[in-house]
Amino acid sequence: MVELRPLLEEEREEFIRRNQAAFLEALAEEMPEGQEVISREEILESLLAPKAQAFQVYWENELVGGVVVQIDLETKRNFLDLLFVDGNHKGKGLGLNIWQAIEQAYPDTEVWETHTPHFEVRNIHFYVNKCGFQIVEFFNPAHPMEHVPDFPDAELFFRFEKRMK
């Protein structure tokens, strides 16, 4: 059984390192050598966002991943910001178990939202076919993300939603 334990401040740097390693492993073929998949600053921004809730993920009492969600108690529209499974635990179905634990932790959620790059086929499959999300928007240079004013041409992302109620 997957357990979500709140991320402690003293665990933050290791969480960032593990998140970067997991993303790099997943996207190594897509990224130029030496380029970060996700920067420390991006992860910190996620962790320190006003509505952020971050968790270490344990399975059978072993640390196996991490997650950051943004929870809006007023609108009940919540955002899955980061979800990762450590490399040596991938391919065991833990991602879906983590997602189900998140859903159970926030039963009042009406809509979940997340984003993923267009080339991340594993993520697209995971969110659509395993977790029940739908693709609702495609961000590209002609339709950039609102909160990213200097949207680079290479940034092509899908936005997903999952309606819970």
TrEMBL record:
It comes from the Bacteria. One of its GO terms (molecular function) is acyltransferase activity, transferring groups other than amino-acyl groups. Residues 2-155 form the N-acetyltransferase domain. It holds the Pfam family Acetyltransf_1. InterPro entries: Acyl_CoA_acyltransferase, GNAT_dom. This is N-acetyltransferase domain-containing protein. It comes from Streptococcus suis.
